[in-house]
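Provenance and format

Records in this collection were gathered into a single text stream. Each protein contributes a sequence line and a token line. The two records reproduced below are adjacent in the stream.
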Amino acid sequence: MAVEKMALAKAINESLRRALDTDPKVVVMGEDVGKLGGVFRVTDGLQKDFGESRVIDTPLAESGIVGTAIGLALRGYRPVVEIQFDGFVFPAYDQIVTQLAKMHARSLGKVKLPVVVRIPYGGGIGAVEHHSESPEALFAHVAGLKIVSPSNASDAYWMMQQAIQSDDPVIFFEPKRRYWDKGEVNTEAIPDPLHAARVVREGTDLTLVAYGPMVKLCQEVADAAAEEGRSLEVLDLRSVSPLDFDSIQASVEKTRRLVVVHEAPVFFGSGAEIAARITERCFYHLEAPVLRVGGYHAPYPPARLEESYLPDLDRVLDAVDRSLAY
């Protein structure tokens, strides 16, 4: 069994390497992905090993990067494009939502666009403006896109493989504050389905639902709650669109309480859709309203204030206390 402990960023690198080696139609594109290896070194060494025609340094033009990827996909390629930082994706938003997401429906199913758009996202790294956004809800609202976010190295490796193999466009949100977190990766495993949620900690008193960077925080919350005799279940969504509502429902029917945690602002965030749908599905099981913990409805603050903006242990534990008080 090929099991290796590696950082999440390294797992993505190894997954891209495997895809490039396996399929000659896979190309990697983006700003500084080649010679530099990416600002987070996620693509380090790939251009050296696969050449400049497979790992392509692009101009600083996000709309052009995604537009070129669409053209390549129309010609049978499987482009993996990197948006260097989350806040830089908006020049490409038009291409993503009006072309990439719509072509399959527009062509009545005749045209497929197997494009992966990699976006390092979220805060916690002390970055400057436009480098710490969490825009996943903006893309989840658009039909025709798959939205996923791994929380650990193993998922990062396998979900990237599955995203590249998908005939539908996938927005792959990478939690940049977790890039250096290490975990075991079995490169010969049979992975879970791409859009299936996973219970990462069993519990009986309340369900914590999260994805990407907040899964680790929710596990820490569950540890802290256990010291007070409370048993919290932690569910890693892994996918934001589609959402695995069946797994959330199964957990909530057991625990009867739900707190949803994400870095993005709570207002119109993905947690709102989860809260509404689970309230409909589990109305007679719930002992308390579904609560949400996330960022504030304000521009992301300067780095020195981000710890006050981001959800932390105390804010999630406060929501747990409020839910259990009903």
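Adjacent record:
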Amino acid sequence: MKKISLGLLVLFGFIANAQSGIQQSEVTRIETELASDAMEGRALFTPGIEKASAFIEAEFKRIGLTYYKELQSYRQDFLIKGKKANNVIGIIPGKSKPNEYVIFSGHFDHLGMKESGDDKIFNGANDDASGITAVITLAEYFKKKNDNERTLIFVAFTGEETGGYGSAFFSNSINADEVVAMFNIEMIGTDSKWGKNSAYITGFERSDFGTILQKNLVGSGFNFYQDPYPQEQLFYRSDNARLAALGVPAHTISTSKMDIEPNYHKLSDEVSTLDMNNMTEIIKSIAISSQTIISGKDTPSRVPKIKK
């Protein structure tokens, strides 16, 4: 029998922990609720998005997350063109590095409903109920694990589909210099172009964020790749963009085949089209790959700031 290094034993321990802590049944429960017809497509300023917000808030309360800064609830309210909207934010305070932040995020808004038709609801199962499902599941995983040295911030953004309003407001509420990394999760419900057990990271070449994640996954069978759709400019098309522009290693993790994804922004983006088993494995891999960042062992290099 060959000797097994201490590093591999630690990795296997992380994998076993993630395997036991992140269950497909729970992933399916959350995803199914967020993408249900009752949410009416989660369009901005509608009863449906209010239902989605209330569901996420209830999940954060169930998990036992604390409030963000001076907020008195999980809602971060703000105005968009004179109308009230809100992000949903929950916190797990860091033990030894409370002023160093690691963000896990996605967006909970989508396209709403058509006026008529047999199927008139844009359920947004992949875009981006899958990302919010990951955020909630990771929040529960890390809360139970209870060993994060850095403070973890879990954010469900609103207004992504209409201009990134939620992430813009949030980015102005936090000191970007104190944000160590941002895991923005967008459309992970379908297989990537490389098949199962894989995903890509937008802006991979802009920091060593992806390199750190991949290092933590050695031996797991999961791989992160560079964004294969550079022509789509995805790095600046999701909620990571606002903090990335301020120098934060803020990247989006996705599996969406942007050239041939059949249900993207269509009525057919429903739970039945998702690979729930693979999605669960992706969430587990995000949990494993983030370990050295949330522990304070690794600090990703900064992204070049965008000059105003």
